[in-house]
Amino acid sequence: MAIKDTPEEWTVTATTTPFTGNKTSVRTDEVVMPDGATVTRDYQVHPGSVAVLALDDAGRVLVLRQYRHPVRHRLWEIPAGLLDVPGENPLHAAQRELYEEAHVKAEDWRVLTDVYTTPGGCDEAVRIFLARDLSEAEGERYEVSEEEADMELARVPQDELVRGALAGELHNNCLVVGVLALTAAQGGAGLDALRPADAPWPARPFEA
After folding, report:
1. Contact (Cβ atoms closer than 8 angstroms) between residue 129 and residue 111
2. Which UniProt keywords apply (predicted)?
3. How much is the CA Rg of the chain, to the nearest whole Å?
4. Backbone angles phi and psi of 24, in degrees to 5
5. Environment class of residue 122 by beta-carbon count within 10 Å: exposed (0-12), middle (13-18) or buried (19+)?
6. What does the longest C-alpha to C-alpha distance in the chain come to?
7. How are beta strands 125-136 and 49-54 bridged, if at all?
8. Residues 112-152: pLDDT tens digits?
9. Which residue among 148, 152, 160, 207 is the active-site one?
10. Structure pTM?
11. Number of other residues whose CB lies within 10 A of the CB of residue 26
């Protein structure tokens, strides 16, 4: 049996949007179950995100430390951001985030993995890129504000991030998934066997 997620859509008899925010909203669907019963499902509607695991020549990963109010924690994360424009090319968005948050550019880009962050309550899809051949970006640094104004930047050995993830000391999903996927890829077919940066992404179709 092939272990592969497959698209499927059950019948929705009614839909409302009880809340609309700046970037996301909450939707309520009446969904018909396999036994014929109709149940209510509330979930967050999200535009999608990209994240960048930037790996330097010394085997260190570029990470950011940022306050996240919903969980009342300052978390170590990898650069990430929303897909603000419908149909936006995720590679272009990832390159923008790496520049804005770290003032870094990369010459080699691959798709590391694609995930749904919380599919039981949100439709957010994230594409995590691997970026290599790093260098300082040209020009002035991007001006940050709000939580990002207090952000810390570091380069941490990959092994230390894996240890922290398994020890329950690191909790950001893109960081944890990213470093574990990186380690698995290195132990398998190798990083050059990863999907190209422009690989199709059915969860968030984009223009070339």
Report:
1. yes
2. Hydrolase
3. 19
4. -130, 170
5. middle
6. 60
7. parallel
8. 999 999 999 999 999 999 999 999 998 777 666 556 668 99
9. 148
10. 0.94
11. 16
- In sequence order, the β-bridge partners of residue 136 are 104
Detail the DSSP E strand segments found in the chain. 12-20, 25-32, 38-45, 49-54, 60-68, 73-77, 80-82, 104-116, 125-136, 152-157, 195-196
Alpha carbons 24 and 147: distance in angstroms, whole number: 18
Instruction: Give the C-alpha separation, 78 to 151, whole Å.
Output: 12
Residue keyed to tokens 């132990």? 187
148 carries an active-site annotation: yes
Q: How far apart are CA 136 and CA 199, in angstroms?
A: 26
Q: Is the torsion defined by CA of 45, 122, 203, 52 positive or negative?
A: positive
162: enclosing H helix or E strand: helix 158-166
**What structural domains does the chain harbor?**
11-45 (no CATH), 49-193 (3.90.79.10)
Tokens of 51: 């994240």
Pairwise CA distance, residues 113 & 104, whole Å: 21
Does residue 33 carry a pLDDT above 90? Answer: yes
Residues 147-173 have a mean pLDDT of 93
170-202: pLDDT as tens digits: 999 999 999 999 999 999 999 999 999 999 999
Cβ-Cβ contacts under 8 Å for 116 (sequence gap 6 or more): 123, 124, 125, 126, 203
